[in-house]
Write a structure and sequence with these properties.
Blueprint (H helix, E strand, L loop, with lengths): L26 E4 L7 E7 L2 E12 L12 E8 L11 E2 L2 H17 L8 E11 L4 H15 L8 E9 L2 E4 L3 H4 L5 E7 L2 E11 L4 H30 L1
Parallel strand pairs: 4-6
Antiparallel strand pairs: 1-2, 2-3, 3-6, 4-5, 7-8, 7-9, 9-10
GO cellular component, one term: nuclear exosome (RNase complex)
Family: Belongs to the RNase PH family.
Protein name: Exosome complex component RRP41
Amino acid sequence: MSRHVEYVSSAGLRKDGRRPPETRQVNIEFGTMAACDGSCTVTSRKSKVCATVLGPRETTNRQEAKYDQVAVTCEVAIAAFAGERRRAAQRQTIQSEEISSAVVQVVRSIVLLSQYPGSQIHISVEILQNDGSEKIAAINAACLALVDANVAMRDAVCCLNAASLDNHILIDLTADELRSQCSVLSVAFTGHNTDNIVWFETAGRISPDVLSQLLESAKKSAKVLFDEQIKKALEASV
């Protein structure tokens, strides 16, 4: 699978200069969009995702209304210029629906739903640039936009992925690393307690032993990412 391409050099560095457990440097900007209740743009080297939140507001769709908690919906758009090749902007594709479903799952796990009975939160995510791990970036941006909208939440979220490649465990994979078709674990933790997992999924077959190693490495890297980057951005926005 990876024998023809060296993803980690003999010096222990990945192609972009990071060490295997390092995440990309993240730039977090709140309030980047108008005419919404909250927004956040997350930029990570060649990846850029913008999320906006409308709500909580009284729902106009009776079928989606829930008398005892808020309804959560999400729409994802992938810009024509997001990937390495320009293509038509994508809405309602399998990829965008998978990202939307993951965002909703995480949001429903972290938001205090019962605080907003009969209401709706609508999240819009636009993937402007994509260098791999777009689902991870979408989840992080959406949850940070909820913070900007002052939605009641159990905690902030820190989401990332991990994979075993060239006998190393890599964190926060790039598009090039993902093209190796390695098996990937994607996981979202609560920021202040990375022992608490709110969502995870796997792509490919992963043995129990490797899964345990990936999860432990992801947890350690998530703590560093949250403490050194996400938490500081949250504190600066207050």
